[in-house]
Amino acid sequence: MKFGGGQAGLAAGYYLRRAGIGFVILDSEINPGGAWQHGWES
Fold this sequence. Notes:
Layout: E1 2-4, H1 7-18, E2 24-26, H2 36-39
Parallel strand pairs: 1-2
């Protein structure tokens, strides 16, 4: 599986890892979180 590294992608990765399913998170940003990290302080 491949998906973006935004908030939904990171949440999906959490549950995929718990289920033992392999995946790759791809993001065009340097850090995980995608555009989400530019919208809200966290």
